[in-house]
Amino acid sequence: MPASAHEAADVARLRDAATKGDVFSRAAGLHVTASALVVHVPTRRVLLRWHTKMRQWMQVGGHFDPGETDPWSVALREAREETGLDDLASLTDAPRCVQIVIVPVPTFGPENAHEHADLRYALTTDHPDSIRAETRAADLRWMPIDAAGGKVEEENLREFIARVAAALST
Asked: Cβ distance 102 to 30 under 8 Å?
C-alpha cells in the first residue's frame, strides 16, 4: 500500500505503463528495476554502494534480466551480485516491497535519459564483514542507519532508509 500521495501516483503510473507494454524491457522509457537496502540488524548498519554512473551512494539493485518477472528475486539476485553476500534474507518474515518510486535516470553514454520504476526491499545479513565489491569502482560501505540518510542525495532514498529504520524499531 502506498505510504504517500506521491508514491500512490508512481504506482498508478507504473500500472498504466504495464497495460501499454513490457515494463521489464530496458528499451521502455519507463521500466521496472528492483533494489534493496542491506541491513546488519545487531549493529543497526546499512550497506550503501557507490554508483559511478549516478556518482552517489545508493542502495544495491538493478535491472531485470530477460525472462525475469519477480521483483523480489531480482532484488535478491542483484544484491548478491553487487555485495558478494550469500546469506541475504528478507528483513520481514515474508518478503514485502517497502517502497515503490519512479526515479529519473540521466543520459549516460549511449543510453538515453529514461525512468526506473524501482521496487525496493529490505534484506539482512549475519556476515557483514563478508562483503566483496562487484568492481573496484563500486565501493561498498557500512554506515549507521541513522547517519545513512545524510550520505545519500535523493529524498526518495532518504525516505526508504527511514522506512527500514522504522521497521527495525518495531
From this structure: yes
Strands (E), 22-95: 30-40, 45-51, 56-58, 60-63, 89-90
Q: What is the pLDDT of residues 42-65, one digit of tens each?
A: 999 999 999 887 789 999 999 999
Sign of CA dihedral 117, 97, 90, 73: negative
- Could you tell me if 117 and 32 are in contact, meaning their C-beta atoms sit under 8 angstroms apart? yes
Tally of structural domains, the chain: 1
pTM of the model: 0.94
Q: How far apart are the first and last CA of the chain?
A: 18
Cα atoms in the Cβ-side hemisphere of radius 13 Å centred on 22: 11
The CATH number assigned to the domain holding 161 equals 3.90.79.10
How is residue 111 annotated by DSSP? B
DSSP state of 65: P
Look up the domain containing 118 and give its range.
5-169
pLDDT tens-digit series, residues 95-109: 999 999 999 988 888
Residue 107 dihedral angles phi and psi, to the nearest 5°: -60, 135
| β-strands 114-124, 30-40 pairing | parallel
List Cβ neighbours of 102 (8 Å cut-off, separation of 6 or more).
10, 13, 14, 30, 115, 116, 117, 118
